[in-house]
Amino acid sequence: xxxxxxxxxxxxxxxxxxxxxxxxxxxxxxxxxxxxxxxxxxxxxxxxxxxxxxxxxxxxxxxxxxxxxxxxxxxxxxxxxxxxxxxxxxxxxxxxxxxxxxxxxxxxxxxxxxxxxxxxxxxxxxxxxxxxxxxxxxxxxxxxxxxxxxxxxxxxxxxxxxxxxxxxxxxxxxxxxxxxxxxxxxxxxxxxxxxxxxxxxxxxxxxxxxxxxxxxxxxxxxxxxxxxxxxxxxxxxxxxxxxxxxxx
Length: 248
Hints:
The structure is a single chain. The chain has about 250 residues and is α/β, with parallel strands linked by helices. The chain folds into two domains: about 1-95 and about 205-240, D-Maltodextrin-Binding Protein, domain 2; about 100-205, 3-Layer(aba) Sandwich (D-Maltodextrin-Binding Protein, domain 2), CATH 3.40.190. It has nine helices and ten strands. The strands form two sheets. The protein has a five-stranded mixed beta sheet, with helices on both faces. Helix 2 links the parallel strand 1 (about 20-25) and strand 2. The longest helix is centred in the first third of the chain and has 15 residues, at about 1-15. The termini are far apart.
């Protein structure tokens, strides 16, 4: 009987729950469930529906009227464009700073740094599409800064998002340049730092400052504002730090 009552109460709560739809850059996919769980502790009646994707594609959807009230992008460029077009109602602010890492299922000699990509041992390199994924753009920048881009560009295997790049790194390439945050998920613990993965030298690319904005679709909705405030809170910062992000 007690178990039945709990089920009924849970059912009533779900009926009263208000759904909010948010667009989230793919690199945050590894941390978003933990963020949602923490938010639910203080907002149990808010059902947070998440759409993941590359920031460029999500921005295109938002410009075409997709029903998102909040956007967590992988850089500042896209939310700034939405703010300029008056589609975003708040000025973009940084919620976290991301980082790049190499990933390979094989043991690699990471002492070579990014020059490893320009060796015969590497024939395929997975990266996110730089036209729509800020992490892909940063990967290209790192290779150009190191002076190896022209030598290795024919090795690229392009993924649609940075999360798909992880899959390609494991299944379709010798190595990939991925979001460092993905390496902190439980599924990735089998891959060891210094053997299967290593951080890309941050001096090779512009810091990946990730921006958040509220959007016109969620205007005057207190639940969107509550989630926005939560993402900028100390609790959320602790979670981002635990996934390898830099937060101030």
